[in-house]
Amino acid sequence: LALFGNKIQSMHPDVVSISDFAGKRFGPVFRFVVVLICIFNMSIAMLAEYTVMGSLFQDFVGSVSYGIIILVGVTTMAYTSYGGTYISILTDQVQAILTILFIGILTIFVAVTFRDVELPKPLSSSLGANALGYSTIFSLPVSLMAATVFSEAMWQKVWAGKDRNAVLFGGFFGGCLIIIAVFLFGFAGWLANWGGLIPFDYDEAGVPLVNP
């Protein structure tokens, strides 16, 4: 995205969004289609984030799910409306720092405590190499690439980049951090499943029952 974004920005300096580029390059009809795809893509991510947030507060805090969703939604709209792109990028930086800190603490915690878990042998067939696993080699990169290309949040960094080198460095460095984060979360989930710690049962209130 950094490579193509720099090229688009140099060829069309007046373009400020992927829908603008689509309209300038292919006409108003295609621009409208791109806008609809971007809105649909954004809605999926937003609904997923709010749903998970509400579920966490409902399951582990014991409160209603919609309270925290309304609070976060109103707060986000307020500071974004006031600060625009600058405050959006600033909050992204804060989230990145907190995420790195959280992943570091979580990695140390898992490394110290997981050795007490008895791992069943042989390995379950669902955790080894299988058809579903091989299919994700194609489906996962394609879906993520499509979601990235049609995400204004990603293109926002291209338009706001100081220069070409800054955009390339940000794309490479951010990509490396994402690869590490996805591996650690995926590997932790794989270990948890292997150790029998994934909750498949729920109590009468719908709270997950985590295996001891």
Task: Give an account of the 3D structure.
The protein has about 210 residues and is mainly α. Helix content is about 75%, strand content about 0%. The protein is built from 7 helices and 2 strands, in the order H-H-H-H-H-H-H-E-E. The chain has helices spanning about 1-10, 20-25, 30-60, 65-115, 130-150, 150-160, 165-195, and strands at about 200, 210. A two-stranded antiparallel ribbon has the order 1-2. The longest helix is centred in the middle third of the chain and has 49 residues, at about 65-115.
Shape: globular
Sheet with the most strands? 2 strands, antiparallel
Please indicate the percent range of residues in DSSP E strands (runs of 2 or more).
Answer: under 5%
- Mean pLDDT rating: 81
What would you report as the Rg, rounded to the nearest angstrom?
21 Å
Strand order of the largest sheet: 1-2
**Spatial separation of the terminal alpha carbons:** 44 Å
The count of helical stretches stands at: 7
Given as residue ranges, the uncertain stretches (5+ residues, pLDDT < 50) are none
Order of helices and strands: HHHHHHHEE
**Structural class estimated from helices and strands:** mainly alpha
By DSSP, the count of extended strands is: 2
Oligomer, anyone? single chain
Fraction of residues in H or I helices: over 70%
